[in-house]
Amino acid sequence: MKTSILFVLFGLFLFVGCNKKEVKFYQSDISQKDSTEHLIVDISLTGLNTDEKFNSDIIDVYNDSIHKFIAGIRSELRKDMEQYKSFVNEDSLMNKNFTFELYVKDTVFLASTDLISTRILVYMYQGGANGSNNYYAFNYLPKEKRFIDIKSLLQSEEKKINLLLPKHFINTDSCFNDVPTYENTTCINESLENYIFTFNQYILGPRYCGEAVITIPKNNFSDK
């Protein structure tokens, strides 16, 4: 197995404002690439670190949780691969060149002492004509060292959201044929000024349309 883990600290700062003050975070790229006979893994994540004024253990909880989540996906995919290899050894007619694939990439929408909001894209190929894209939201409160579910917190705004989503939906070439709603939203993230609603492939239209992302400014909500 060829494994390379590259930690590149850019020396750049991610400056993200919050309601009270500007908070400084150090941003680093974490890349993990594995390649074996039946498995390809390519992971690109954003590591967040803080300056000396902010306790490092608070951000460690966030980073560790993200890494454990990815490790769990890798573990399950590896089990599937090992099962496939055993089938191949027992059945000479099976395709011996089949390769499982895992690609992971994240987007950090907000990084402040009040909230870190990240969306993770996980692509997996486990056979068939196409692989699958799935999105996951990780919304973390550093001061409380815990994750929250923004979708649940916005449940009281469901009726308003169902009116706002179609208004802010950019349906290029009218590819999507279903109506975005609070209920069929895959995950919700938060930036300084917006809520970001993400819908997985197939939810609002055919696979070739891809995922749908709708941004709604927070000023549409009276208490935000």
Can you describe this structure?
The chain has a 7-stranded mixed β-sheet with strand order 1-2-3-4-5-6-7, covered by helices on one side. A 3-stranded antiparallel β-sheet has the order 8-9-10. It starts with a strand and ends in a 7-residue tail after the last strand. 21% of the residues are buried. It has helices at residues 56-90, 150-153, 158-168, and strands spanning 2-17, 22-35, 39-50, 100-111, 116-125, 132-141, 146-148, 187-190, 194-199, 212-217. It is α+β, with helices and mostly antiparallel strands. 22% of the residues lie in helices and 42% in strands.
List the main descriptive attributes of the protein structure presented here.
224 residues; alpha+beta; 7-stranded mixed β-sheet; 3 helices; 22% helix; 42% strand; disordered N terminus
